[in-house]
Amino acid sequence: MDCIDLETCEVFQGAEGPTAPLICVIDLPEHPFGITEAAQGRRASVARIPIAAWGDNLTPWPAPGLRDGDAPFGGHGDRTLRELLDSVVPALERRHGIRPRALAICGYSLGGLFAFHAFCRDACLVACASLSGSLWYEGLVEDLERHPFDGAGRYAYFSLGKKEPRSGAPIMRRVQARMERCAELCHEYGCGVGIVMGPGNHMQHHQERLEAGISALDSFLGRQETTGMIRCAPTERRPAMKTHPCLTLFATASLAASLALTAGCSAQPSLPTEGSTSIDRGSDNVAQSFSSTALAVVLDNGSVLFIDRDTESPYYPGLDTARIVDADGNETSADALASGNVVRVTGNGIMLESYPGQYPGITDVEIVDEGAPENLEPYADMISELNVERDPAEPAQATVEYRTEQAVVSLMPQTNGYTWSYEENGEGVTVTADVADPVQAKADDLIDAQVDGPTDATVSFDVPASDLRVTRWSEADIAGATDPNSINLPGEDVQVTASDGAYVFTIEPGYRYFFEATFDAGTVGYLFTVREG
To answer: Is 278 left (phi over 0), alpha (psi -120 to 50) or beta?
Structure first.
């Protein structure tokens, strides 16, 4: 075979036996991921698919290299996809005596790009996980906008390290904005979508992201066992063309879906299930409900964390206005929650995209089992990481959140200068980072928000801020300056409202926004731009 070494492919059969769904995980032959470990204990089967020459065989079309002198990308991804589905999967079925009732795909980095592109191209792939996916790839979003597909009953999972947008070649720094746009389009086309922003950069936490991605797919696929799915035969495969306006919007913490595929792999519209929000475009009534079970964790600082039992994703619950009921059915307060409690959580289903997630719209929390701290042992590493205090030498990080018709979107604007003080070995240290004027940055290098018109944006920080000042410039004025390296354009002040420890201001397409926040430890500037959605 041209792209895939069939002899080194492996299959780890799932607990559901020969007909279990199959998750194809793209791997590097020379530096394999920990797929063997990640495949253990799954209901679905997992296939390790080693593919050489990622820059050629996993990219959707040719593109220049990232930097001067780098080899160009070959763009043979569609050929690899056909080889995978038409030759490799049938060969693995014969070799291992399996007949999976559904197929999903998972990959990291360029493998994540390939997994997502394959999912969009072929309806036989009912789910995908793009882990730190190279969704910055030139033309990807534009291609997805030009080629809508039928996503009803299908699921796309995205994860990214929160430091990834701050490193690498300039085009790579757009990865979060491009990932969020891909997620929005998947929502629009009818897919269930999950987004997780985790710790670290592109070169860190590979195994954690891999295991979380496979868990998300396994959980989604495990809910489909009674739906009568029929997987496509090679001759039946066809592009996933959009055929109807049905839209089912999934919260990040929820993987529940209703999935029915008929022969020929034509996805049918799904009915709302527990854990989904159904949006009827043809009426003014929007029915919203979300229910899940979680394990409660009381962190060392006294804050409460929930870990979703289906997705194993942590999130901070908004309990200020929630009704909390103990195991005896009596109303109580958040102080009654203890580590190891099993709780049923009900709310509006909108999860703010951060790591851990934030779920402010909770209406009810019911303790269904007192449990015990021992219930949390499988999550000890995760909890230990979240209990670690932030590095005081690191300037505050900001998150900008805004709402579109499809989703709540978050971005992490790039830092644009700071003065930051902290204590080290008993002595005070102050660090100042000077950068170019906000208007001197290239628009294409900036993290971007994408909205259709004036939209409220909420800024929050990982340490409390005491003040926020926002300035904006027209991108047209910046582009029209005669000498962009020496321009000195006056900015326009933007009105800011403080709200529950966060700050709210209005963003509009065509403007660049710089905001400077004041903290006890100093001041930090942040920068992003806003484009037409």
So the answer is: beta
